[in-house]
Amino acid sequence: MRRPTVLIAVLGLLVAACGPVGQPRTLVPVEPAQRPMPANAGVTEQLPDEDDVPEEGAEQDCGDPAASLPPGGTDVPDGSTMDEIIERDRLIVGVDQNTHLFGFRDPTTGELEGFDIDIARELADALLGDPDKVQFTAVSVADRIPALTEGAVDVVVFMMTMNCERREHIDFSSVYYVAGQRVLVREDSDYSSLADLGGEPVCAPRGSTSSVNVDAADPRPELVEVDSISDCLVLLQQGQVEAISTDDTILAGMAEQDPTTEIVGEPISSEPYGIGIPKGNEDMVRYVNAFLEELREQRWSQLYATWLEPALGPAEPPEPTYR
């Protein structure tokens, strides 16, 4: 009978593995798992000062950045930019696909929807007689201007604030919406404005005026930049940032998606949105401005009521200014 010997040997191995009887075991410390950051998301120590990075031929002041060329009517001359689009038989538009209410994919149909999407369809209808003759090209915030300068799209309809720096590279239509930058936080937080977030991580889309405003805030938050604004909501939900600061139009869509969040503070800026157009295409600028004049009179209020009024309350079409 060898079983008692085998049993004793096994018990001896277990005692050796567990250490001497009566002495505490030494456990290997377990580090908590770090939540992964979205692709290309990260802390920006400080944005470059525009005054320290002058561009050759750059103008210091463009006057009113929201002032556009006067409308030129909706007739299409031969050889014009609009005539080339008609020959192609489709309008190519750079848009967002990640911002609820403005430009997003319906999870059921997979179709792009939103306020900006409908404006792009209205423009296609005005120029080509069919709102479906539009080819949407999804771009990031940082890629809006390159899409225009490289000729990848005819126009960009993507919550694009008109400012002097951007006017050095592209042209803009007249204003079609005015937003204001605010802050989104968790409902159970104690933050009431951007001023409360000094030193705390705050998310904003890379290449946006929102990032510039967060970077310039005093006291300065820790700026976390992302390529897609929807990544900011993920970071807030995971506790990797304390707040999101960007246009209230975008934040309203996020608050609707996640009722545990809320918008706080007064607007820290005014953000006039214009349709981006390649530099030098003045005929297209004048055509789009004529289109927007008609849109404000006939369809703007209906589009606003469909997409934005439930979240942002009533509003009137913005008054355009012309040079």
Automatic annotation (TrEMBL):
Region (Disordered): 30-77
Alphabetical UniProt keywords: Signal, Transport
Gene Ontology process terms (BP): amino acid transport
UniProt keyword annotation of Electron transport present: no
Keyword presence, Transport: yes
GO cellular component, one term: outer membrane-bounded periplasmic space
Domain (Solute-binding protein family 3/N-terminal) ranges: 90-311
Pfam family, one: SBP_bac_3
Residue spans of biased composition, Acidic residues class: 47-62
InterPro entries documented for this protein: Bact_solute-bind_prot3 (IPR051455), SBP_3_CS (IPR018313), Solute-binding_3/MltF_N (IPR001638)
Family classification: Belongs to the bacterial solute-binding protein 3 family.
Name of the molecule in the record: Glutamate ABC transporter substrate-binding protein
Organism: Haloechinothrix aidingensis
